[in-house]
Amino acid sequence: MYEKVKNYNFKPFIGDNELLLIAGPCAVEDEDNLTITAKFLLENGIHYMRAGAYKPRTSPYTFQGLEEKGLNILKRVKEKTGIKVVSEIVDISQIPSYEAIVDIIQVGARNMQNFALLKALGKINKPILLKRGFGSTIHEWLYACEYLLNEGNHQVILCERGIKTFETMTRNTLDISSVPIIKGITKIPVIIDPSHSSGRSDLIIPLAKAGVAVGANGLLIEVHNHPHLALSDKDETIDFDTFKELLKQVKMLTDLYNKEVI
Amino acid sequence: MYEKVKNYNFKPFIGDNELLLIAGPCAVEDEDNLTITAKFLLENGIHYMRAGAYKPRTSPYTFQGLEEKGLNILKRVKEKTGIKVVSEIVDISQIPSYEAIVDIIQVGARNMQNFALLKALGKINKPILLKRGFGSTIHEWLYACEYLLNEGNHQVILCERGIKTFETMTRNTLDISSVPIIKGITKIPVIIDPSHSSGRSDLIIPLAKAGVAVGANGLLIEVHNHPHLALSDKDETIDFDTFKELLKQVKMLTDLYNKEVI
Amino acid sequence: MYEKVKNYNFKPFIGDNELLLIAGPCAVEDEDNLTITAKFLLENGIHYMRAGAYKPRTSPYTFQGLEEKGLNILKRVKEKTGIKVVSEIVDISQIPSYEAIVDIIQVGARNMQNFALLKALGKINKPILLKRGFGSTIHEWLYACEYLLNEGNHQVILCERGIKTFETMTRNTLDISSVPIIKGITKIPVIIDPSHSSGRSDLIIPLAKAGVAVGANGLLIEVHNHPHLALSDKDETIDFDTFKELLKQVKMLTDLYNKEVI
Amino acid sequence: MYEKVKNYNFKPFIGDNELLLIAGPCAVEDEDNLTITAKFLLENGIHYMRAGAYKPRTSPYTFQGLEEKGLNILKRVKEKTGIKVVSEIVDISQIPSYEAIVDIIQVGARNMQNFALLKALGKINKPILLKRGFGSTIHEWLYACEYLLNEGNHQVILCERGIKTFETMTRNTLDISSVPIIKGITKIPVIIDPSHSSGRSDLIIPLAKAGVAVGANGLLIEVHNHPHLALSDKDETIDFDTFKELLKQVKMLTDLYNKEVI
Asked: Cα separation of A79 and C116, whole Å?
């Protein structure tokens, strides 16, 4: 049973006394706005910005991301501001450009069991953020992680982002219990994504607090300078002021637990 | 849509700066052990003890509770120690004895939509702890609460105890998002039950911390002086030492948020 | 494990070469319309009519059934037409009147684990239709049945009516696999309810056919002389002409399998 | 909303009076056994054989398929026997070899939202069997199909294979209602897979019958000459004799509905 996950003995990407906060817009939209967001994050001590160039969307007719153009914007914003970038990969063919530009490569929920992609990512030297599939058990998720480890890539971060249930008041159900379960099995860091799990901006702060309290090693937060203008996921995206409040609340908890936001 | 829930303007059973901690064994087993537990809880500043006299069990062949004898034990332990008691009701016919002995009457998950019972409990003057059904949406749960309010009983506490999902590493999936969702709708207090939701003693402390951080008004915890001897739910029950650690961790958070454990 | 279910060796309520078809409106509404429906069913060879007097409804503000008045209407329609009646019980206190009037007493999905009610119904001499709870596993359902058998009532019929899942195009998800699973465990008859599981009148005929083909011992169908005027469940109720088409389709299958619609 | 699915007006791959029966082992194991199976199927009037060369497996340590070698075996068995082959693709890079060898390319449940793969398959001239993701709604599934249609490939077959629910007696829950729902929306054929949905060989025949009765356009069945020696999915695989009984039962229904097994 996922032996390499169980016996993981590398230096985890996130240290015991650290909380990794990744934030940013759902998608790369344009260079100016992304630069504004990058600067805002850096001013607030956040060093990793998420932003999608390729967006897996339920419908082929909704915004699919700026694709290669989006990657180039990410590259320029990174060069200009010094921020590190996290972005989702959707196909093996993109690996070379992601290796060149992206600091943490995200495997999204829909590709958690795209084993061909996992095997290829297991062969590169770049941190991988592996989101839990919304229809996947913790058991299946840890095995997906084992695919990465088994190929030799041990720079892995797991991300709980909610599962499909019968409850309809949230987009998915954040399975917060997965965090302590995984911590009982492995030293691989696990972070939570309150934005995608809930799909509701009003729940981001309380769920982020729950995530820190439950022992997660980090948070993935959707933030946009103008959430109502976001081209995707606007209902779950918070604005800069709300993000500052979130950061204040998170820091109350990291102070309590002697952790540092990185 | 659950108008009385939405426009609730009574004094909630749990104040804004309070955290209600209810703890105790799954079931009343014998007077001596229950007295030991009651004293332990009181010494640690806990004033409400849970213990079931009538136990709804999946199988008719597993321990069904001591029933009337159990209620009498509860009564004597209460008289001896001064602790308040919380116990689950399973039929309308029990209302008079519960009114006489029990301080908070619990409606369990399996009876959340036993509307005949809810209507009858809506007519009495006693706090009701309404657990969420494991197959019920938040919407259905709030409507079940509306049945109580509509009959005139406004001393209500909601309790999130997990829902059925495909995940098998926990007994149920704690839907922690339900807490901030309900807080956005009503002032009725909502507490969480990490014990029944997870079914795993190793998850109780982290989930309790998550519950306090997410804004729950209280916790329902299964504790037993000898968990391995408990006649029911032994896998999810913590011992006295673990409970003290839980209390310490909870108080770090209530101190942070200027709340008091009651 | 549910030994009495497994080793059931009584004459089942529905014979091997029979298909029990129960049909009728969701609720008793008025005597004239119910009489029309009863006559229609009898003319079409259907001998059991369902109709609810007490309706468990999510909201206390929607139609709760005509209650005692509804039972009296059922009684009179039964006397006038000779039809047998199936109706849902919601509380122990109703047992005497149900024993006097109702031919098959239904325990609804919300009360599947109302063990106090099950124990009481296990002591009477009247067939019980036990619906599966929408949040209950087959395992839990069979144990609920064991409560009835264990008290001595072996006139039991199980009814699959769908479970809660993430799918939203149907009200619940008909778990048709439960039929052959149960047939592999016990001789207790199991019927399916396409109306409540799907919540969609356009799915009733295909699901009824699937039910017969999978080996179910019967069907529970909502039919109303004027579905759009039904006081509850109008979206899942079919009209008389559609019912005749359903009956024709069902008989093609029962003829194929040498069964008789009773 | 999936306009091209809704307004589909091409000649469907499966005609109105046809039932497509695809059968075969989970995985290509060796040429001799596969040849035996191919001949058995052809002798029984089955023209499409399924067999996986690349197997997406939860664990990297279980049999992953014979991969390229498996494809070559498929090619030779096809040449020798004349059977048509259905096999699952797991990466874009495999498209050229699948185009050359495979008659119907299967997209598995885990890749249902691998949009990069769908877009690429939408550009080729080869029938695609699109399985429903076990965590996907019908709505999401139809949109995945829209990705194929939108790129120009209209030779599509949908395959219901069960969804994740809380029920544990089956591997997944066959959502049989999806068949009539989809038939109400589009003329694209939809088949069911009783083997993967249930994970239990004893349920295959009743579920296959239910599938035909509900109106499915075909069936996907796992069959192996020695099920207990199968390298994967042995619990859900039936042997040749059981397959013959299945075929007999299916033909009773196709005769009734004037359909022909193809």
From this structure: 69
Q: Is the pLDDT of residue D206 over 90?
A: yes
Q: What is the pTM of this model?
A: 0.96
The ipTM of this complex is 0.96
Q: Is D176 on the interface with C (CB under 8 A)?
A: yes
Distance from CA of B57 to the nearest CA of C (A): 8
**CA dihedral of residues C181, C185, C191, C197 (deg, nearest 10):** -40
**Residue D168 contacts B where some CB pair is shorter than 8 Å:** yes
| Residue C169 at interface with chain A, using a CB cutoff of 8 Å | no
Which amino acid is present at A32? D
Structure tokens at A160: 């709980």
Helix/strand/coil percent split, chain D, to 5:
45, 15, 40
DSSP H or E run through C181: helix C178-183
Closest Cα in chain B to D164: B166
From the CA atom positions of chain C, what is the Rg in Å?
A: 17
Q: Are strands D156-160 and C128-131 parallel, antiparallel or unpaired?
A: unpaired
Instruction: Please report residues of B whose CB lies closer than 8 A to that of C163.
Output: 135
**Nearest CA-CA distance, residue D165 and chain C, Å:** 6
End-to-end CA distance of chain A: 32
Q: What is the mean pLDDT of each run of 10 residues along chain B (262 residues)?
A: 95 96 96 97 98 94 93 97 97 96 98 97 98 98 98 98 98 98 98 96 98 98 91 88 98 98 96
Q: Which residue has the higher pLDDT, A87 or D230?
A: A87
Distance CA A13, CA A27 (A): 24
Q: Chain A partners of D119 at a C-beta cutoff of 8 Å?
A: 60
Beta carbons within 8 Å of A42's beta carbon, 6+ residues apart: A81, A82, A83
pLDDT of residue D23: 98
Q: Which positions of chain A have pLDDT values less than 70?
A: none
> Cβ A139–B168 below 8 Å, yes or no?
yes
For residue C23, list its beta bridge partners.
Answer: C49, C221
- Is C135 within 8 Å of B140 when comparing Cβ atoms? no
Of the CA atoms within 13 Å of residue A37, those in its CB half-sphere come to 35
